[in-house]
Amino acid sequence: MKKKSKELEPQPLVTYWMAPPDVGAPIACLASTYTFHAALFEDDLLPRFLGLRFDNTERERIFIAEREDKLSTVTAAVFVDAAHVDGRQTTGRWSQVPVRVPGGCQHSKITVLVWEKRIRVLVASANLTTTGYRRNREIAACLDFYDGDGASSRELLAAVLDFVEDDLLELGSMPPGTKTRLAEVIKSTRQRARGWKLPDAPASLPTTTFIPVTPKRSKRAGKGVIDPLLDAWGSKSASSICVMTPFIGDSANAVRTTMNGLMRVARVRGAEGHLILGGRPSEQDADQFNVDLPDWFRDEWSKAWKVDADAISVYVVPPQREGEKVDRSLHAKAIMVASDERTLLLIGSSNFSPHGLGIGTHNLEANLCYVARDQDHVRALESALPVDWEEDLQEQIRWPAEPLTVSDDPQSSSPPPPPGFEWATFNEQSGKLALQLEGALPATWSIWIPGRDVAVFDNTRDTLSVENGLLVLALDEAARVHRITYVTIRWTDDEGKEQEARLPTLVDNEAELLPPEALRSLQSDDIVKCLLSGKDPIEWAEDDEDDENEPGKRKKNGDKNHDLLKSLDTDAYVIYRTRRLGRAFAALSQRILSTLPTQTAMRHRLERDPVGPMMLARAISIESKDASDVGRAATLFALAELTLALSYVALRVDPKGKLGLRPIFDGVRLEIDELAKGFGEQASATTPLGRYVNSVRTRCARTAKEGINAG
């Protein structure tokens, strides 16, 4: 096993979040982590995945608005161990889902990135934290699935999606609407890949297998690492086994349990055991290295391998190598099994511990197992580990009495919320905070929100009123100036100790979210201006604000004439407005046609886009209530034209109805038609306008029926 130091630096993990060339628009991002930094996810990872043009270091306001707009058309969620949720999340456009694992923790580090023409899966040892992505020595694998040569296998993708659906989704605490959206995106990802010519799992080496660790649940046995690892390895006897781990459990008994599992691998006589550990040179003796693991681990390892404790083969990965300016702790985990005929490498989130390997007790973990025979493939597996096989092998090792870190991942300073607090939601439109309560609750507890020094609910002060287990709290305006992304639960435990934990607020229905601040409360004239400008709403809003703030800036003559006609409400203005709306409808149609044809993206574009058809129709209707008869008739005509345009666009976007988009179009069209009926007194059936409006309704219904029949 040979490797030079200059080959050790891996590709930064953040680069894998960037879209490869020609993969189309982003669709979904599903990730899991033990510890979590929301700022890294929002400001660094999501912008790469979404392909944002701006970053948070310049024009922060437009960066946030662009991110909000892009997130509106994708589904994004992070599954976080319930004790490690991060309250610094700033937007409800993505979901932070707390996961509770019976008898263990959510420790997997897996990411599924979905674009139109590619699905990327990352299986790693790194948490979604700045330490994990920027500093630690980690290990990760990138699997790409696409319609072409060189893609990963269909079975591998199915196994990953099964883990996300059957384990992360089921153990996550979330409202029904959130769970439905995430289940739909998993289903649509499977359907997307079904149309691709992905290869089947290879019948011979090299092979790649997804190996999760999952807890025992009703009607489901727990899954561990050792049995599938043995299946992947086969009947060959190993000549060496190498373990890389930063954490090994909390006792000698735990190590003994893990070693018993490892020693199930068949070995030749004289097989060697190797360790890769984090450590550093001793300050007293430069030839001696202090490692992070304790002497009782050394003793159990030497007993299992039947070698003297001083003869254990140990590779010590230092915190700094030549050219590095900061300490980089070893956080990678791996098991390598080798013979003269093949090599196996297991990488991922599992530490060398009972919980990590699923021996008797289980975390939620995600790993990949590679088995190779060809020497080039074997060298690639050896080179994947952050170790220098020539320089890191040390003979003089000092083992502390206790591990320098109890866990490779920092423990939370607080426990997860009590089991009775399932999930929380916050409705930005109504300002209502809701908590799902189930089962027994602590004797005393209270709910707090950021920025308030008084509890919004205290069970010793307030009357508990729940319906179907739901506690709903209406917050005042001052309490909801900013998005409430988490609540703090404070309670007294059974031992009388005061405890507190955070619960992220989720979104049950995306219609509960407000649009970006720059695009709220747009009037119809603003929407039309934006559509006719040819710019996306974010650019238009920013440019419009710059124009307003520029000293001496005056409106163009066309705008002056427009304002004069509008103030007089003349027939000339009505004609001008109608023609202008016609051009805007054409631009709006193109905007819809360029939208990604997924239900999430199209629902946002039609129903909630600040410059979309529903918002435009509502703005036109509200502003026309007090108009003259001529103006109200023009409004009715405009709304009819808008429904007709939507009908034709729907036929082009989903001609056979197989994408499930037609019901979304039909719902918006019917809602706009209801708005039009409020101006019906201007269009009796005997008038030309009335006959035209009725013919539009008939034509729209016929077009919808044609689409259904075509499907």
Please outline what is shown here.
The chain is 36% helix and 20% strand.
Structural summary, described in words:
A hairpin with a 3-residue loop joins β4 and β5. This protein starts with 25 loop residues before the first strand and ends with a helix. The protein contains 19 helices and 24 strands. It is 36% helix and 20% strand. The chain has 4 domains: 190 residues, Endonuclease, Chain A (2-Layer Sandwich); 192 residues, 2-Layer Sandwich (Endonuclease, Chain A); 92 residues, Immunoglobulin-like, CATH 2.60.40; 194 residues. The longest helix has 25 residues. α4 runs antiparallel to α5, α17 packs antiparallel against α18 and α17 runs parallel beside α19. With 711 residues, it is an alpha+beta fold. The strands form 3 sheets. Strands 7, 8, 9, 10, 11, 12, 13, 14, 15 and 16 form a 10-stranded mixed beta sheet that branches. An 8-stranded mixed beta sheet has the order 20-19-23-24-17-18-22-21, with no helix packed on it. The protein has a 6-stranded mixed beta sheet with strand order 3-2-1-4-5-6, with helices on one face.
